[in-house]
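On clarity, I found the account of how folds are encoded harder to follow than it need be. For illustration, here is how one protein appears when written out as sequence plus structure tokens:

:::
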Amino acid sequence: MVVGFDQQRILQLVDHRVIECEKCKGKMRVPINKGTLQVTCPKCSHKFNITPENIKD
């Protein structure tokens, strides 16, 4: 049996992604199945919009 790291399979199973704030580069989790979201950074309170297409795998 071969045990390996299948990144695509893991990304399919997880319902969120980690993104960076555009202003302070702080990291936060956002859901990927909610469409376009207005996100507020908990660290610097910067507000910005995120779409599923903008989230990198």
Notes: The mean pLDDT is 85. The longest strand covers residues 16-20. The two ends are 27 Å apart (CA to CA).
